[in-house]
Structure formats: C-alpha cells, structure tokens
Specification:
7 strands; Rossmann fold; single chain
Length: 192
Amino acid sequence: MNRRHALQALGGLMLQATGAHAGYGAALASLRAGGVLLLRHAQTEPGIGDPPGFRIDDCGTQRNLSAAGRAQARAAGDALRAHGVRIDAVYSSAWCRCIDTAAQMFPDLRVDLLPALNSFFDGQGDRERQTAALRDWIAKLDEGRRVAMVTHQVNVLALTGDNLAMGGAVLIAPDGRGGIRRLGRVVLDGDQ
C-alpha cells in the first residue's frame, strides 16, 4: 500500500503540495504551528443550494449531509487527530450541513457560528462584504492558533480561488501584513 492509499485508509487527508510546502507532512506541520483549515462542508444529499422556502433555523428545510458525508467528516477528524493535529477553535456557517460537518469532525469542541462563513449563493448574502470580513478575521488571528472553519464552495472560491468539491479544504494563515497566505489544498476522504 503506498503512502497516499495509507492516508486515505486513515480517513484520507492528503495535501496537493503548493508553494513552498513540499508535501503532506509539511502541511500538517504548518497546521500544527497555527493557521486555518478552511473546509467546504462534507458530502450532502443530492442537489444544488437549498430547496425553495428553506429556513436557516430549520434543518428539515435544508439540503443536509448524507450518511456518507457524516462518515467523511468523522474520518477526516480522526485522521487529523491521528497525525497529531490539534484544533483550538471551530467556526461554521449557520447552515446545518456546515454545523454538522464541524460537529462530526471535532466532537469535543464547541462549534461557534461566524456570519462571514454564511453562504452568499444565489444572492443570499453579500459576497464582497463577507469575503472582506473573513479575510480580516483570519489576518488578525493570533500566531500559533489553529482554527477550523466550515463553509460553502462559493465562500472558499471567493477567498482563495479554490473551487473545492464537498469535503475539500485549503490551509491558509495570516501573512503578517494584514492579509492571508495559502499554504496548500487538503483533500478529505478520497476527494481528488
């Protein structure tokens, strides 16, 4: 079994190396030292967006995680812990699929809502304002703090340029100059 398959068997976090970071180990070391694991929620039931008339305060009206998505999120959290990555705080969009992803990945941590992570798909929010607020929040993150943030595809794309599949993630950190830097793309549970 090669290293990639071994990692996928653990729940499968793997890094597609970018920039100065030369591989999976470097990305994990970076996250251990501090930064943000910015995740798109795990696999959902089929569909795009939410059903007409959905309500943010009623999970029964939203598109939610599938059984495979819940398993994907649990496995990804298990893989992080198996590799000695400790997360200090978890933030989520108010959508149930994001909250559930966070809760499955990090069952021992409180999940706090951060409005900048809420979806702006199909005109539901303000792309520019939310992206600027998220960039500013991350830029002010204390050095050494390890944070997981669960959000939506449109939010990740606007902030980093990464068009992630469900369950994908990108590792970012403050750049020390009031902005953010991208450290690498993390893929969960076999998502290529």
